[in-house]
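Blinded run. Sample ID left blank on purpose so nobody reads anything into the name before looking at the predicted structure. Input follows.
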Amino acid sequence: MPTRSSDSNNLFSASKPAPPAHTAHVDGGARGNPGPAGYGVAITDASGKPVAELSEYLGHRTNNYAEYQGLLAALRYASENQIKALKVISDSELMVRQMKGIYKVRHPELRKLYDEAQQLVRRLEHFEIRHALREHNRTADRLANEAMDRGR
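Blinded prediction complete.
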């Protein structure tokens, strides 16, 4: 099971110090909710150097669906690139609280995405997820908006 940082913004208490982690700023949105949707992900290595920018237009979806797709894109990138420690920053308080187990995931479509995310998290040695205000997630927000623009 992955270690978790012990502060209140993370999932579980750590049994050992956290290894150097990549950081993924994730964002998703839908214009009209539901409406044209997309996600954006900006990933940096442990030193803060940008390593990837991911975005995708998702069609007519909800903002919560788009937020989860952004998280899944970050987790898949980590898995495909042998990244073992990942810190996720998201402006979706709902998704962060669901991933931490504070809120239940009741919507069937989101439950599938949540389950897939949990499965990918278990492959990591260390995982953190934190909420940040949109102004602290600007690159991911820009990427998500560019993805939504591609769907016009």
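Unblinding after everyone has recorded impressions. The domain at 22-150 is CATH 3.30.420.10 (Nucleotidyltransferase; domain 5).
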